[in-house]
Amino acid sequence: MANSKREKDFNGNDEFKAVTEGLKKIYNQKIKALETTYNFEGFHSPPLTDSDIEAKPIVLLMGQYSTGKTTFIKYLLEREYPGSHIGVEPTTDRFVAVMNGVENKVIPGNAAAVDSQLPFQGLNKHGQAFLSRFQVSQLPSPVLENMSIIDTPGILAGDKQRLDRGYDFTAVIEWFAERADLILLFFDSHKLDISNEFKLAISSLRGQEEKVRVLLNKADMVDGQQLMRVYGAMMWSLGKVIQTPEVMRVFLGSFWSEKPPNVFEDCRALLDAEQKDMLRSLRELPHNATIRKVNEIVKRARLAKVHAYIIGHLKKEMPSMFGKTAKQNELMEKLDKEFVKIQQKYHLPAGDFPNVERFKVGLSVYKFDKFHNLKIQLIEKAEDALSQDLPKLMAKLPQGNRVLPPTERNPFDMTLSTSKNSSKLDLPPSYWDFSAINKQEAIAQFNSLRPNNGKVSGESVKPVLMETGLEKTVLAKVWKLADWDEDGYMDIDQFAVALHLCKAVTSGGELPEELPPALKPSSKL
């Protein structure tokens, strides 16, 4: 299956590696010391390792039992991952990180949590009870070269499962959600109930809403009318759980590895379009993940800077000899007022300060007189990273049009007709010359599509060509002829040729099997 269509679609590139290397250098040289000096780990999260920054985009799958999470992974990989189980009963009983590897291998949770090459060292804080229910499954897959997938246990209704886990399921979900680039909530078209534990798990995603997508799976198990009702019921249920004014993106899909015989086909075109949108969002993860990592480092640097000011201030307020305990208690009692003092003294944004009550919990295990004094040089390094290094790094991110996989390069996405067109052309030979094209007429229409780097995408051109009234099979061939560099985009010359070819067909002519060389401008020959 190594050369399968789906795996080819996920093949990526190395254009973001330089940015990742730069990010590691900036963090290790200018931000990490600020975190470790002022006990940032005790209040927020542990220092990032190189493997955390290098980690491929992570897709977190969540849902109740038998909603198709593991089957979805099988659909993507076109094979089962080591240790997977699929069935109508609750099958996945642990967290599984599905990752790329040279061979099929299962790494137990305890070993994975101490492996510096894997981004899971932070899971040690969840204890042995969790690590015994966690594993890394590795297998060679082109899809996994660009992402890692976290399969989670199916969530059941009732308190027994929640109480008997032995670890805090919601806290683990929160840990993975913070590091995930995409979170997929799975719903089955036949099971829309949301159990108490699933509600808690969804609530733990607060603050990560921009990453969350909803997948209504097995959508072809109901007919079109029922699907509309199921969709409405699901959105109503979600509205009571997810407290956000923004509308979440919902995908409809049916990711069977083997399609059952009793499916409904009346919404097949809709489901196919939705599945393509879903796969496109996965393909775009490497680009978005690099931007997200830069964003996370910026967020950490701002938090670490404010944290250092807070700790330095508390240290400075402590007496040198007597009354330390009383002074510490006093500072804890009026911590909110101390925050205001720090904010005004150093001109810091109020939004960068932590929650007062949560910060008090963190402070309760420390003695303030043991804190380090404020070191301005560490602050200056972090400010330099925020004002100079990180903006320069963002500027290095590739701009312009992304490289499209072959299956996305023709916006009409139709299998071209295998019938042979006659090589005899009804139109005069002069028609098939670039000089016959009214390029000026096409320029205004081309510019209205807002070209990027002199090119427009297939999705932008598609409505224009559809207005000709030609069949999609014909338009698919027009695109194939006009997009002679086969990159899925058109410059002004290609756009003008496409319009010219459409005009040829509407005038009664036939499309040639290959684009006549004379129809290309001399600069493109």
Word description of this protein:
This is P-loop containing nucleoside triphosphate hydrolase protein. Its main location: membrane. Residues 400-421 are annotated as: Disordered. Residues 438-525 form the EH domain. InterPro entries: DUF5600, Dynamin, Dynamin_N, EF-hand-dom_pair, EF_hand_dom, EH_dom, EHD_N, G_DYNAMIN_dom. Helix 19 (472-482) packs antiparallel against helix 20 (492-506). Mean pLDDT is 83; it is low at 415-425. Strand 6 (182-188), helix 9 (196-203) and strand 7 (212-217) form a beta-alpha-beta unit. With 525 residues, the chain is of the alpha/beta class. The longest helix has 33 residues, at 285-317. The chain contains 20 helices and 10 strands. The chain folds into 3 domains: 1-54 and 293-399, Topoisomerase, domain 3 (Orthogonal Bundle); 55-283, Rossmann fold (3-Layer(aba) Sandwich); 410-524, Recoverin, domain 1. Helix content is 45%, strand content 9%. The strands form 2 sheets. An 8-stranded mixed beta sheet has the order 3-4-2-5-1-6-7-8, sandwiched between helices. Strands 9-10 form a two-stranded antiparallel sheet.
